[in-house]
Amino acid sequence: MIPTSFSSLIGNEPIKLYLQRMLAKKAIGNSLLFAGQEGIGKGLFAYVLAAQLMSGQNGERHRSKIEKGQHPDIHVYRPEGKLGLHSIQSLRQLSEEVCLPPYEADWKVFIVHEAERMLTYSANALLKTFEEPPPRTVIILLSRSQAALLPTIVSRCRTLHFKPISQHDIEQALVQRTDLSGEAIQSIAGLAHGSLGRALHLAHKGGDSTRLHLLDTLSNLPLANYKALGAAVERIVEEIESSRKQAEDAAKEELLKASGEYLSAVQQSSLEKEIEGFSTLAFVQDAQALFNQLLAWYRDLHLLQLTQNRSYLINLDYAEQLEQVVQKGDLMPIEKVQKAIDEAQLALQRSTSLNICLENLFLKLAWV
């Protein structure tokens, strides 16, 4: 169920307070940018802001529809298709709908998820809309990377920077929403790195098997031969693809629930594109998490070599394995590791297969 009150939101108290003051003073920004990492509640804050704007006459009826994801005055746009991009067609639709009056409420709200995945051409088409938005209209862009947005878009928005959620708050949320043991909750909260969304994802999966396989492999380098390298890559890719399929199935279930039982051919096509977009973004997020885990391993190695202090390790559960690797000596410079990872990420963005990206990366990192 989608939240409709600020009291149900977790973390980012300063932003919560700012939005409440903005509503109290009726100084509503027409173009807002919610920036911050994935899974920290940017979308939920957007829905709550929309619910509060519509809480006047017939407020209870509006809240009920928002909770079900069925309010006609909340327009949600997500990346679509296998590339996971906002289509020009959908953003043209936004430009047209923004000029129409609300259907039921006094306000209409447009929420654009993953705004950094707008093509430059289609983003430029929205500049006029951001410059002169119609009255009683709010456009909220959600982005994990403000730097990836056009500067002309950012300059027209009031930007709110969301912070990672504290480990304590994530642990409390997991206690309320899962049946995991205290030790498992503490471990998952630590691995989430401030993202409640990722913590819930890991709890649903029963942990991060991709990370465990990666770190087990890193603990036993070098591999015997190229065949062993290929097998390690294949296993990692299979786990990421399995995670992508789970995300796709979950998205399909949620979207079908929100869309109703009967869909026209056009609605069905739109739904399929949106599900493909969810699947692509899940893949991108898991690949990014893999690269982050890889960099964290080498960071921990250099930290141990310099300080011999375990307390600052990211991978504290692998402290013994890290110390054994450090004792072998001959660590690759962290700058070289960062460069190799950046090149692999760029290749993946250019549609190179994950298998090839990882094979090239691991060869550069002297896995064999």
From TrEMBL:
It is an enzyme of class 2 (transferase). Signal peptide: none annotated. The keyword Lyase does not apply. SUPFAM superfamilies: P-loop containing nucleoside triphosphate hydrolases. It comes from the Bacteria. One of its GO terms (biological process) is DNA-templated DNA replication. Its EC number is 2.7.7.7. Coiled coil: none annotated. One of its GO terms (molecular function) is DNA-directed DNA polymerase activity. Keywords: Nucleotidyltransferase, Transferase. This is DNA polymerase III, delta' subunit, holB. It comes from Candidatus Protochlamydia naegleriophila.
